[in-house]
Amino acid sequence: MAETGEGTAVSAADRAHAELRELLLRFALLPKQKLNEVALAERLNTSRTPLREALNRLVAEGLLEKGTRGFSVPDLRVDVVTDLFEARLELECAIVRLACERATEAGLEALAGFLDESIAETPDASVDRLIELDIGFHDTLARLAGNAVMRGMLANLNDRIHLVRWIAMDGRRAGTQSQHRDILARVRARDAVGAMALMREHILHRNDGIVAAIRAAYGHVHMLGAR
Amino acid sequence: MAETGEGTAVSAADRAHAELRELLLRFALLPKQKLNEVALAERLNTSRTPLREALNRLVAEGLLEKGTRGFSVPDLRVDVVTDLFEARLELECAIVRLACERATEAGLEALAGFLDESIAETPDASVDRLIELDIGFHDTLARLAGNAVMRGMLANLNDRIHLVRWIAMDGRRAGTQSQHRDILARVRARDAVGAMALMREHILHRNDGIVAAIRAAYGHVHMLGAR
DNA sequence: GTATTCCGCTTTGTATACAGAAAGTGATGC
DNA sequence: GCATCACTTTCTGTATACAAAGCGGAATAC
Asked: In what residue span(s) does the HTH gntR-type domain sit (chains A, B) (predicted)?
């Protein structure tokens, strides 16, 4: 068991899990790629046992798949991605509605501050940073909605759509933060119906051209693969 | 790798996962119980390695928790259970709305048949069977809604609330199937608003007295523990 | 009698070994 | 040149070994 600086022990399996997740979110592991445990264990500087424990967790989280033998990165299938985005839409609408009911004024004030910073940062931000800011806004809304389970479900969906979202965000820098601002205004007004409509528009706007985004994602990962 | 009769290999880890899940759903593993891997491996007739792989999956699925050392069954905490039921409510409402849009006539016809059988069976059914029928109805709706991701999310929530649901169902045999009938009628009429309102009523009806159900669940598991 | 310490045993996280399955490679036949 | 086969190597699922951490009981001190 490795020790962190704060005296909290982090197991090798936990570390492998976190590092694998990073590899997935950075597209260092590509769709349909079959994972080689020996190489991966070496890469992550651990033995196969904690690595396999981490791989099993990621399978349960939907980030990896398990065949009869071995683990692999899921293919980018249109039907699955479509389902993921739709699930996200439904969950986000529920979350924003609950946030209208439950968010504290202090919480909304802090979110407005975050939004100001996001807007200031957007013109020069990398795509990774844009996504971070996007997720930050939505995750804060989820926290303000006061349902930890739903917040966790949203986080999982975010991981699973990360690549497609990255591509879509790259192609479309404009508008996200102003849409966030509009949504926040509705939440502050405790206008659930309005907030949900804007959230739906915001996410459907993103959903447009999922097939195109997936095709672009394939182009992107093939480019990565050629690296 | 064990062979099933149909030539599909089932790994020891897969088997352990399924058996552990069964133990959890049957309350053979109790809230807050610390798991002993050696005893459990012996009980499941496997070695610790595939057992730990299964345990890790169950942690990722929210059915178990992992401390700095070892695995345990989550405590029945009111806030978590409340969140789980609320998440289920939101998800089920989204599902029933999508089912209104997407369900085929044949699919709805089959569900009506299932409902007839469920109603016929209810007076003499065990609680386990009642829950199976309840879950069967909702899962079929989820299938008819045509979003596999959301169906999977619902299945996971169902696992996580199983014990509390069991208690609540035991205390309240009446009304479920007639409520299912009403919901199905709204879906057949493609009345999303009506269907969602009934679904909300159906689940909130269940949610009433979650604290009481959790207390009763504790009584139940203490009785089990004394076995 | 109670609190503390020590020691032996057990448990857990991880590394390594092993066996079977799968993949790769080279030789042979057509 | 291509297909097939046999052999070798590699990979994967699992069992086992090992070291560290934790627990429980006995001994000791007050």
From this structure: 10-76
* Burial (CB count <10 Å: 0-12, 13-18, 19+), residue B57: buried
Residues B38 and B129 in one domain: no
Q: Which structural domain, as residue segments, surrounds residue A115?
A: 78-225
ipTM for this model: 0.90
Q: How many CB pairs under 8 A join A and B?
A: 79
Measured between beta carbons, which residues in chain A are less than 8 angstroms from residue B145? Answer: none
A125 and A221 share one domain: yes
Over residues B30-57, the pLDDT tens digits come to 898 999 999 999 999 999 999 999 999 9
pLDDT at residue number B68: 87
Q: Do A83 and B150 touch (CB under 8 A)?
A: yes
Please, are residues B133 and B119 in contact by the beta-carbon 8 Å criterion? no
For residue range A112-153, what is the model confidence (pLDDT) as tens digits? 999 999 999 888 888 889 999 999 999 999 999 999 999 999
**Residue bearing tokens 């739906």:** A200
Number of domains chain A is built from: 2
Of all nucleotides in the shown strands, which has a C1' nearest the CA of A41? C15
Does residue B4 belong to the interface with chain A, where contact is any CB pair within 8 Å? no
> For residue A66, is pLDDT > 50?
yes
| Residue A39, domain CATH | 1.10.10.10
Q: Is the minimum distance from the CB of A40 to strand C below 7 Å?
A: no
CA A111 – CA B7 distance, rounded (Å): 55
